[in-house]
Amino acid sequence: MTEPDRYIPGVPCWIDTTQPDPDAAAAFYGGLFGWELEDAMPPGFPGRYYIGRIRGGDVAAVGSQPEGEEQPATWNTYVWVADADETAAKVSAAGGTVLVEPAAVGADSGRMAMFADPAGAAFCAWEPNTHRGATVVNEHGALNFNNLNTRDVEGAASFYGAVFGWDVLDVGGAPMWALDGYGDFLEQRTPGMRENMASMGAPPRFEDVVASINPIRDDTPAHWGVTFGVDDADAIAARATELGGRVLVPPFDAPWVRMTIVSDPQGATFTASKFAPENKDLAGSAA
């Protein structure tokens, strides 16, 4: 029996990081999160694409940079779409840029494209075939959130609303992206989900949230980032340092979480977040 899909069009479904030295990056993330890593590229292929897994389930990937391109190491967000070509047309019509035209990945994995929103934040679209996105999420070492960092929330709302149908939801003073109908999908997949969220004090429509928004208050370029769930943010910060990474923001408490911001040895940054319901009434945000 095939496991039902975890995603619908408009929901982030996959992440990968492109690195100058993917072998070293795979060793770092394997040592940090305990991933099992397998190179998905055919023998003799010049690049690498290591799939990171937990208990055999796909979590994320570590890949080579495109040949001939020297770019900073980064984490990439992929949004599930029904038609990558149609999405590319919507991006252009909404004022975004098509960075990589829709194209097939592998023999039958799916089709992907890369875009930039009007503020310059790059993201990918994924039209799935055999690769159905991450199968392990919201646990230690797995994707917990995708985060848009931008200084133009109003402009982003117009763009992503036109492309994916997202709207901005205020969650305790923190803006987040919500997709109407996503909560219905999750409830059908996991009956009782809404009741469980309500019992924990989740705000209205939190089940529709697909990503977060972090307003930028300095000169950092607009970008998409990723947050991994962890059992212990302090331990992850210490372990990342042992493995050659840098702690950019030491562990701190915020509403619902304790988190830290880390740079891997080649410069790709990410957030590690421990769910801390005892912090739900804390004032302020992680900005």
Describe the structure.
The protein is of the alpha+beta class. It has 2 domains: 12-128, 2,3-Dihydroxybiphenyl 1,2-Dioxygenase, domain 1, CATH 3.10.180.10; 143-279, 2,3-Dihydroxybiphenyl 1,2-Dioxygenase, domain 1 (Roll). The protein has helices at residues 22-33, 84-93, 153-164, 182-189, 193-199, 233-242; strands at 12-19, 36-39, 49-54, 57-64, 74-80, 97-105, 110-116, 122-128, 143-150, 166-171, 174-179, 209-215, 223-229, 246-254, 257-263, 269-275. An 8-stranded mixed beta sheet has the order 2-3-4-1-5-8-7-6. The protein has an 8-stranded mixed beta sheet with strand order 10-11-12-9-13-16-15-14, covered by helices on one side. A hairpin with a 2-residue loop joins strand 14 and strand 15 (257-263). The radius of gyration is 18 Å and the shape is globular. It starts with 11 loop residues before the first strand and ends in a 12-residue tail after the last strand.
Could you write a compact summary of the structure shown?
The protein is an alpha+beta fold and 287 residues long. 21% of the residues lie in helices and 39% in strands.
Question: Poorly predicted ranges (pLDDT <50, ≥5 residues)?
Answer: none
The shape, in one word, is: globular
What characterizes the major β-sheet? 8 strands, mixed
The rounded Rg comes to: 18 Å
Continuous helix count: 6
In total, the number of domains comes to 2
Span between termini: 43 Å
Major beta sheet, strand line-up: 2-3-4-1-5-8-7-6
CATH topology of the largest domain: 2,3-Dihydroxybiphenyl 1,2-Dioxygenase, domain 1
For the record, what CATH class of the largest domain applies?
Alpha Beta
The pLDDT mean sits at 92
Give the helix level as a range of percent: 10-25%
Helix/strand-derived category reads alpha+beta
Secondary structure tally: strands: 16
CATH architecture level-2 label of the largest domain = Roll
H and E order: EHEEEEHEEEEHEEHHEEHEEE
Share of residues in strands = 35-45%
